[in-house]
Amino acid sequence: MAGVVIVGGGQGGFQAAASLRQEGYEGPVTLVGDEPGLPYQRPPLSKAYLKDGDAARLALRPEAFFAAAGIALVHDQAEGVDRAARRVALASGAALAYDHLILAPGARNARPPLPGIEAPGVLGLRTLADAQALRAALPATVASGARAVVIGGGFIGLEFAAVARAFGCAVTVVEAAPRLM
């Protein structure tokens, strides 16, 4: 039995794996995510983590949970699905066989087609690594008197703007819609 392969190591993928076990599924469960470490909450990245830097508080469950539940964590990127062969191809060159496949890859940031959007110092916020980079950049931004420009006046952008202001950083929020949120 190849079991269930879940592509996506975020909260949706984690919850699918945990729910399979809670509902009595006894076959193999493999959770594939392209980030190192344990599955973690993303909503606190834009505020709580930026304030306190405590990444341990973000974990959805401790490592012992995954071992006890028999959920295998694979830190690799899924690159393709062969539905006929029931296999997921990974960036490492490995492949995972499955009986059932759950796709829970999450979302990506919208990157507007602006000149310089890929320049150094232009940061996104989606992953813990992104939040770590932003948190590390804030003190230098404040010290240099530079301004943070936030593209997007939605929940995440506004939370980051509030934290940046609390650090003492000047912030401008740019929003395409007629109002925020």
Instruction: Compute the number of helices.
Output: 5
Quote the average pLDDT. Answer: 96
Unreliable spans are none
Question: Order of helices and strands, N to C?
Answer: EHEHHEEEEEHEHE
Radius of gyration (CA) equals 19 Å
Helix content: 25-40%
- Principal-axis shape equals elongated
Q: Give the beta-strand count.
A: 9
Could you give a short account of the major beta sheet? Answer: 4 strands, parallel
Question: TL;DR?
Answer:
It contains 5 helices and 9 strands, in the order βαβααβββββαβαβ. By secondary structure, the chain is α/β, with parallel strands linked by helices.
Key phrases:
three-stranded antiparallel β-sheet, 9 strands, alpha/beta, 181 residues, elongated
Q: Can you tell me about this structure?
A:
- The structure is a single chain.
- The protein is α/β, with parallel strands linked by helices and 181 residues long.
- The chain has 5 helices and 9 strands; from the N terminus they run βαβααβββββαβαβ.
- It has helices at 11-22, 48-52, 63-69, 128-144, 155-166; strands at residues 4-7, 29-33, 71-75, 78-82, 87-90, 95-97, 100-103, 147-151, 170-174.
- Strands 3-2-1-7 form a 4-stranded parallel beta sheet. A 3-stranded antiparallel beta sheet has the order 4-5-6, with no helix packed on it.
- It is elongated, with a radius of gyration of 19 Å.
- The termini are far apart.
- The model has no long low-confidence stretch (mean pLDDT 96).
